[in-house]
Amino acid sequence: MIKLVICDLDNTLYDWVGYYVPAFEAMVSELQHEHGVDRERLLDDFRSVHQSHGTSEYAFVLTELDVLRDVDTLAASGAGLHPAIAAFRNKAAETLHLYDGVRDTLVQLRAQERGIVAYTDAMMAYADLRLDQLDVADLFDELVATRDHPVPPLANDQVSYFPPARFRAPTIARHSALDFAARKPNPAGLVALLRRWGVAPEETIYVGDSLTRDVAMAQAAHVHDVHASYGRSYAPDLWHQLVRVTHWTPEDVERERRRAIEPVTPTHAIGSFAELLAVVEALDADVTVRAQCQSRAAAATVRR
User: Fold this and answer.
1) H or E stretch including 225?
2) On the chain, which terminus has fewer CB atoms closer than 10 Å, C or N?
């Protein structure tokens, strides 16, 4: 029986690219309008700050951009919410939503008394806040995510698109932080998770959208892997915009390119998150059938 269901977050439960890139672009457009800065120079600065903190969604980036170094961003916003931050938050509220069937599927899995864990390369506070915003945080028993970056001493709500207080007040009670070296497709964090839960690999299922990171990691840990194939359906132009300011270094890009050369074949694939239920049920049935066959074989041996 499947006792533990582990879910990737970005592009598995929701369209992260379709949410974040439009919100980021709204912020950039407002900065250009407010301060008259060159777009390409601005994007170069964003990428530099993102790489220095190891995340493409560094919430406090506005106060660390070289191109705005001579601008008092708080004064520019009239000591209220900076217009660029307001633009980000407003667009994010429009674009962040679960894929169809996600909430109902999680509710059914929980009703079946299975453990549910969120597992992501995103940093802890960002992942926790998104699950809270999507109103599904209460459906997860644990969140495994990358260790957070430090919160700047002068961080405040006016120039941060995520409230700084959320870095100190998570919604999901049980958190397990991964160091950068332990991120996907390194299976060490996944193996440690199974050990904490006291479940065997064959009692665990992992679903994620990336073949080279999610599926490869699940297979390395010998758990049942499920490829969320629908998670790669985002618009190519949004992806190119994201790559322009990504926190990935050239070394990261090359490492990912080398991984992609080696084909990864998923054991299971789903075209919507709701299809996960059928995969879980089939795996449960397979275990039951095998147990029955073993029982009959043992009984036959005794009779002989």
Assistant:
1) strand 224-228
2) C
